[in-house]
Design a protein that fits this description.
This protein is mostly helical and 159 residues long. It has helices spanning 3-13, 18-25, 27-30, 34-40, 45-48, 56-69, 76-97, 102-106, 123-128, 131-148, 153-158. Helix content is 66%, strand content 0%. Helix 2 packs parallel to helix 10 and helix 6 packs antiparallel against helix 7 (76-97). The model has no long low-confidence stretch (mean pLDDT 92).
Length: 159
């Protein structure tokens, strides 16, 4: 297990949501402090605020990609290239896990609810949910993407 994957697992097991675990593990590459990355990604856990929509791990990957590859002043061509990279990692995640949707990823193992109150993080919680594996998959996919797609100088300079 890579150090970044271990860091993501540690964050998740400490009680951070799936999006925070993924985004927080890449804070060092963004030039942002980890506590800021954790705040930035806090709303995306549970499929966006426990609405059970797009998996928070996928949102975490998107946050990292935006920080590393976008200047925020993108031309239409740059936006298209960025959306293509987001789609590439999302499709890789979906190929591994069968879905990008939180409720679909959870439904085989737990009763899915949109109640805003998070479930207590107990040993039983971690046994029933695929979330730790999904966090690991997202980090692996993002690490592989970064290895084969160097961060552009113009965005690295912004960081």
């Amino acid at each position: 297990m890579t150090p970044r994957r271990q860091q993501a697992q540690d964050l998740f097991l400490q009680g951070y949501n799936c999006s925070q675990a993924v985004a927080g593990a890449f804070a060092d590459l963004t030039g942002l402090k980890q506590d800021f990355m954790l705040r930035l990604s806090a709303s995306f856990g549970g499929g966006f605020g426990r609405l059970r929509e797009i998996c928070g791990t996928v949102s975490g990957m998107g946050i990292v990609l935006g920080l590393l590859y976008s200047t925020g002043e993108d031309t239409p061509q740059e936006k298209a290239a960025h959306y293509a990279r987001v789609q590439e990692v999302a499709k890789a995640f979906e190929a591994r896990n069968g879905s990008l949707i939180c409720r679909e990823l959870l439904s085989a193992k737990v009763k899915v609810t949109t109640d805003p109150n998070p479930d207590p993080r107990t040993p039983e919680y971690f046994k029933k949910r695929p979330c730790a594996k999904l966090v690991d998959d997202a980090v692996q996919i993002l690490e592989q993407y970064l290895e084969s797609h160097p961060i552009p100088e113009k965005t690295a300079a912004v960081l």
